[in-house]
Records
---
Amino acid sequence: MTQKHTIRSALALIFFAAAMPVALGLTPWPRENIVDIEDGKSAPFVGDWSMELAGRPTTTYATCDLPVRIQAPDDTHIFYVGPKDPEPEAATELVARDGRTHWRPIAGGPQYFAVWVGPDRFHLYEADVEDEADWGEPYAFTRCD
């Protein structure tokens, strides 16, 4: 290897090492809860929530003026009521698995899993693509006051 190639290789390695934290910083979303929330239980989810798709650009689906409402008929099921829905359609079973709460709609449909990123904020990801989840674009729920 010539001295010119050695210098280029060294510069490429330095550039790669310097760029790695920036690249990792583009996906700051955790893969496990970072707050102490008991997985598989409905109580933490109960309440009114704003909701957005936290991507580029961010898309807002619900605000605190017109929130998503989550109700609990028992300890392991929730009713999700969209911002314009008069009432829920069917219950969703909550299952604790792998340090997360999985949402399994009883009537069928897409399954999701929640990752708590704060005591009043969680991110929801599609379970069908869990191994390939786009950690930078979750549905982000923030509790309303």
---
Amino acid sequence: MTDPVKVVWEYLSSLPGLPSGCVTGDLVGREAGQATVYLNESGGFRLVRDRMDRVDVEYDVYAEDRAEAKRLALLVRQALLEELPGREAGGALVLDVAEISRPRYYPDSVSREHMYGGEVTLFLTYTNRN
């Protein structure tokens, strides 16, 4: 079974509007102020036995400038909701994407960076059964 974060990471990493290398599932080695789209699986469940999963994925978008963090978060939101459904990425076919929460401003209390976080649900069927 494919890691759902890998599905979203592979898709978002291919987008020309995001800074190269900014999409990650891990914040290790990240420098404060560096534009980052951090992905984290937040839940989900099996919908159809051995056929389809519902997976919830949070995305946190960090940037040194608040306007840039918001712009990137809205770009991620649009890509996930409007462009990802029907595409294959990371060993899965994304059947649909629904929004749980739109990007909301959550400044990081430690680094004091600007961050917008949102969450989506992906409906997946796996093309690679490994």
---
Amino acid sequence: MSLNLTTLLEQTRLFLHDSEGARYSTDDLTAAARMALMEINLVSAQGFALAGLDGVDETTLPDSLQHLLVMGAAGYAASARAAAQAEWELAPQKTLPLALWSRNVMEDFRRILCTLYPPETARLHEQRTAAPFVRWEGTLSEEHPDHLA
């Protein structure tokens, strides 16, 4: 089954033990899903999309990454909720259980993501050579011949 925004939100609520939606709003979970997907895209150097998110019609995220997206969305949502609940002025050293849980979820999310997509010089080089800008032909001390100043 292909994941879309509606099913992602349902699965994220289950991950967060909030199936009724009492603690996390749809907008908060959507923002968290967007952040998790952006992180997956950044680390994987891909342009995966999720149907229903930001006007996209088709999910291009592979099935193998769907649970990872749910985990990341849950981690981002719980991190935001923990930050909103913190009473910084009254107890700066107090660590909230939700903050610890969200930190652990985000560490697992990032560890799995980096295991699936380890940093590779070749992949980064491919991105740099495909960049949509003009290559500089001179040295740093020279002005570019097309400079308009």
